[in-house]
Amino acid sequence: MPPDTTQTPVTAPAVRRVTVDEGSAGQRLDNFLLRELKGVPKTHVYRVIRAGEVRVNKGRAHADTRLEIGDEVRIPPVRLPERAAQPEAPAREFPVVFEDEHLLVIDKPAGVAVHGGSGVSYGVIEALRRSRPTAKFLELVHRLDKETSGLLMIAKKRSALVNLQDQLRERETGKTYAALVWGDWPARLKVIDVPLVKFVGSDGERWVRPGKEGEDEAKRSISLVKVVQRTPQFSLLDVTIKTGRTHQIRVHLQQAGHAIVGDPKYGDFERNRELARGPSKFDRMFLHARRLQFQHPATGETVTCEAPLPAACQNLVGSPLS
Question: Exposed, middle or buried by CB within 10 Å (0-12, 13-18, 19+), for 97?
């Protein structure tokens, strides 16, 4: 008798239509999809958005489209890759700078992603949720690059999330970063007003480049720069961002001819390697979200949070920031 070669048919993924509820209202479309399509590479999620395969209320939408209660999101069929089970996030707390019933501000260490995805199993938000199993709501208000340390806001209520993200969008918050760059920063260069363009490189990674005036994908980006300290090799800067674009500070400073010390993506790789191997053993990116000011989402009072330079950064330049 010939062997039975009948195969069980594989069910193809189907189109899903998800109605936005209160728990997802106010969220960006890309963040919504990353949660709905757990395990799908982030680059693929952005690809289907750009291709117009994702629809909101039957119309094309962008990654930064804000969802509202009752919106219908069409999620195209996406086949999950075969992969080993991902480890659960370990419970972890982070240094708390401010906390009440509405929000939490922590001092994130460098080298820790803010959320899982793109090869990272978990990040700050997953670890916090595991550490606080009774918390009904914990969501990132904004992001920091994995390599960046410093102040990060997490909302503990949906109303706080929407309010704080509105403040960020309307540029009503003050976010100041300490950045150490190579070389002698020109004293006259105090405002960088250079549009930025996001793109996915041939390596599948997300990159940002300076844009040109009138370029469709270019978004206006403004950074204010103040020199805090100069050394023969470095300039320590205070950079206050008036817009919150992806990799904004890193690309703005690099395109001005002064890359951030230790930046693994846009930096001076040879000098970074020499610094890591030298007496200081400095092997991180010197970008730290040191000061954050916003209006409290419930009381309207001004809240100012500060985080001191991490020890490795202090050791490299001393402690010039108060």
Answer: middle
